[in-house]
Amino acid sequence: MKSTWRWTSGTAVGLLTQPALAEYGYNLQQPASQVAHDVFQLHNLIMLVCAGIFVVVFGAMFYALIKHRKSAGHPAAHFHENTTVEIIWTVIPFIILMGMAYPAAKVVIDMKDTSNPDLTIKVTGYQWKWGYDYLNEDISFYSTLATPRAQITGAAPKGENYLLEVDEPVVVPVGKRVRMLITANDVLHAWWVPALGAKQDAIPGFIRDIWFKADAVGTYRGQCVELCGKDHGFMPIVVEVVSQADYEAWVAGKKSAAKRAEADNTREFSVAELVERGQKVYESNCAACHQADGKGLAGSFPAISGSKVATGPIADHIALVLNGRPGTAMAAFAKQLSDADIAAVVTYQRNAWDNKTGDRVQPADIASARGGAKVAAASAAQ
């Protein structure tokens, strides 16, 4: 009995201490901004108040149950409309609520103050990735899940950052006030990085904003926290906080890469080059629905392998990728992908799996489809 008590008390003490909570992921993340620090302190304050109320209320209840139990022979007291009691149970909760509301309102007002930013980034949620536009730097990119499919399907061991790693992280300078303008392209999403104290719903047709100022260089991870469809759990967020010098170098690198990507839109590719590039584009943008083997999901997402679109007229295939299919989950990629990327993914789809068409689509073909009269969405069913 004594050993059982020691084990129980030791376990309780261990779980209630900070290191144990952090180790098992039961506590909030370590704050990395002033807003996150304020949220953390507010959480602790409210928890203490709630714990105090719990102890007082349940202590009084159990005291009354034991002290005035029937077996002790204590006669029950009968009273109604006691003015003193009614004043006490009205005034005390009011004071407690006001004491909790004041610091909470102060933190919320600070979170909503997005004035005087050093950097503004527009965030757009898509099924299932994030788009980022640096409004001060003329930089745009998409950020998608980078966890290998083999880990997701269980064919390989899970990595350290399983489902919390992306191909293109958000990069911001340390100590700078960053304003995020958040919206969505299709359904509701929510952008959340807990260590930075930044969370906001992404709503189609609306732009909402938040801000943060990271205290230290580092990598901070978050996720979409609004149920947004089949792959809701597959659209993580990664924010890389770097020094001002490293940030300027990153901006220069992104602008150079944009120029190279622009040059790709005017060159001729071999079939092998297109297929290699198209496979990467497919895995980042198409595999979530149509699956890595191109066989889709019966009843939800059509197969591409052996489909009439991928083996039929090339113009219809290009039109479907550019414009999507209204009323279905097939998104329009005209604004999301470059001419070279669309040419590559169409070529890949027409030569992968059972689709041995031997077709080759060049960036000029995509530019032509964009530049002419809008290509009608393909009517052929996949």
From TrEMBL:
Q: Which GO terms describe its biological process?
A: ATP synthesis coupled electron transport
GO cellular-component terms in the record? plasma membrane
Membrane topology field: Multi-pass membrane protein
Q: Where in the cell is it found?
A: Cell membrane; Membrane
Sample GO molecular function, one term: oxidoreductase activity
- Name the domain of life: Bacteria
Q: How is the cofactor bound?
A: Binds a copper A center.
Stated EC number for the protein is: 7.1.1.9
- Protein known as: Cytochrome c oxidase subunit 2
Q: Which organism is it from?
A: Thiobacillus denitrificans (strain ATCC 25259 / T1)
Q: What is the lineage of its organism?
A: Bacteria, Pseudomonadati, Pseudomonadota, Betaproteobacteria, Nitrosomonadales
